[in-house]
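Long-time lurker, first post. I've been practising inverse folding by hand and with some scripts of my own, and I keep getting stuck on stretches where the structure tokens seem ambiguous. Below is the full token string for one chain I'm working on. Before anyone asks, I'm not after the true native sequence, just a reasonable design that respects the backbone. If someone could post their per-position residues I'd love to compare against what I wrote down in my notebook.
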């Protein structure tokens, strides 16, 4: 009987302390960390969606025999760099790794912007339904990327603040002492200037009556030929 009474006392004490523990913010740090990591997963998903669109976009543009080969190669190489850098949730507090990831994605954004500006000079692409569909999907994905980055930054801002303010700073230095501030997305250097385009006007025109100017189509994911 005495043992049962002690167990009941412990249960009652735990039940009484639970609201007090929650109120003091002991769970706030892991909760906000989970929220920030979920937002990061959304960012990665949208970047992957964009990467998946690029090979078909490059193949469609090359099939129309535009002469800006350097621009196509730049897009393909930028995609390869962007997809080669993986950043998981454990790296979000590593400034160097985060900046490397952001720079690679920014280079792909810049290369795609230059490509889309370039193809405006080619009426055959503006009338190509496949290209227009890919362009629309790409533009929609870029919008989703911006939203995902904004949501991630807000989640990280809240998490980072929690590590510094009272009373949660107590837990950040004791129970959750391994918690580190996460990195925020910032505006890249490429985002500060409009893309510049140099048209290759001296290149010979594509052979008449030959699809793609007699050049083989691009295998999705492969670099355009010289």
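-- Answer (accepted) --
I ran through it position by position. Result:
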């Amino acid at each position: 009987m005495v043992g049962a009474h002690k167990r009941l006392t412990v249960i009652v004490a735990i039940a009484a302390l639970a609201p007090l523990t929650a109120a003091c913010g002991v769970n706030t740090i892991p909760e906000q960390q989970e929220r920030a990591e979920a937002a990061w997963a959304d960012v990665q998903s949208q970047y992957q969606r964009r990467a998946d669109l690029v090979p078909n976009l490059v193949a469609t543009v090359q099939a129309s025999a535009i002469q800006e080969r350097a621009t196509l190669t730049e897009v393909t190489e930028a995609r390869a760099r962007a997809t080669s850098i993986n950043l998981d949730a454990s790296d979000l507090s590593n400034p160097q790794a985060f900046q490397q990831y952001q720079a690679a994605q920014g280079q792909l954004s810049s290369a795609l912007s230059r490509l889309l500006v370039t193809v405006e000079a080619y009426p055959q692409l503006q009338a190509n339904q496949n290209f227009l569909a890919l362009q629309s999907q790409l533009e929609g994905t870029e919008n989703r990327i911006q939203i995902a980055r904004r949501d991630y930054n807000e989640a990280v801002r809240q998490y980072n603040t929690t590590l510094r303010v009272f009373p949660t700073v107590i837990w950040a230095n004791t129970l959750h002492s391994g918690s580190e501030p996460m990195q925020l997305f910032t505006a890249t250097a490429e985002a500060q200037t409009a893309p510049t385009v140099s048209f290759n006007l001296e290149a010979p025109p594509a052979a008449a009556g030959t699809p793609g100017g007699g050049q083989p189509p691009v295998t999705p994911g492969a670099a355009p030929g010289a």
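A couple of notes from the structure itself: Confidence is low (pLDDT under 50) at residues 8-22, 194-226. The chain has seven helices and no strands. Happy to go over any region you disagree with.
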